[in-house]
Amino acid sequence: MAKTLSRLVVFSDPKKGQAAEVVGHFRDFVKSRARIIATCNIDDCTADVLKEADFAVVFGGDGSIISAARHLSRSNVPVIGVNLGKLGFLAEFSVDELKKCFDSIILGKASIEKRMMLSCKVCSGNKVKFTSSALNDVFIAAGPPFRMVELKVLVDGQPLAGCISDGLVISTPTGSTAYNLSAGGPILSGKMEAMVVAPLCPHSLSFRPIVISAGSTVEILGVRVNKGTTISVDGQISMKLLVGDVVKVERDKGIFLIVNNPLRTEWYTLATKLNWAEKPKYRK
Asked: Which H or E run includes 273?
């Protein structure tokens, strides 16, 4: 019986850096190992193509992975992230590491991690103005003219806090190392199921980030906002927030599947990419 080759969808932006050249070399490498059923930009890939794929290989940086997650979360296609960007926190594999591990990945020997995602909905009265999923975070930024905004925050219908600040970040465990971390929020293991609510420069010494259940529903009401106040999803999709708008954030029905690099650990990546827990620079 003929061997069934794994089916791959390859995502890349040929206009970015060395992407076209790297994808070309990858095509040659996988010829006898797997079958590439489509090569496309992330926004152009249809659900029918994804339905046929065993893996999606994303060549790019963390931004490419985050964008891919929103498209792939409902298709249950595991993502192999190949770093062609600057940081490579989510894009775990270098090109050489992927070649070393590729055979074991397609044989099912690599760990595939489930990452929870968020669903974001913006409503005005009974009208839904905006919906999106998010891998990292949903955040509200005060925007021009850069006065503090006032937000009312509820969790599961119960008032949590009135937030007078420069904004608010709601993040997943995956996004805890992104904007949430810069805002003073905690680092969560990507395998956890939880949400972090973190204010941005609050007008209070006691409003600290809080970790809540992944099953909770967070509602944010714009009480006082600026002309430029914006809600952003993963820092990639955004819209203006108006007084009276209600932002509803809860766990998304889809999940993001990411293939772990067996040559690295979660904590090694944290330490090497973000210099977490690095020792002081002692004088010799």
From this structure: helix 266-274
| Local confidence band at 4 (pLDDT 50, 70, 90 cut-offs) | confident
Residue 62 appears among annotated catalytic residues: yes
Catalytic hit among 62, 166, 234, 245: 62
Distances (CA, A) of 22 to 32, 99, 101, 233, 275: 18, 12, 17, 29, 28
Contact 136, 237 (CB under 8 A): no
Q: pLDDT tens digit string along 92-142?
A: 999 999 999 999 999 999 999 999 999 999 999 899 999 999 999 999 999
State both tokens at 136: 């990292």
**Alpha-carbon span 234 to 238, nearest angstrom:** 9
Q: Quick one: 234 exposed, middle or buried, by C-beta within 10 A (0-12, 13-18, 19+)?
A: buried
Separation of alpha carbons 148 and 203, rounded Å: 8
Amino acid type, 2: A
In order of 38, 253, 272, the CA distances from 111 in angstroms are 24, 22, 21
* Strand-pair partners of 53: none
How far is the C-alpha of 90 from the C-alpha of 155, rounded, in Å?
29
Q: Compute the radius of gyration of the chain from its Cα atoms.
A: 20
**CA proximity to 263, closest of 127, 160, 110:** 110
Q: Which two tokens stand for residue 197?
A: 């609510």
Looking up tokens 């209600």 gives 246
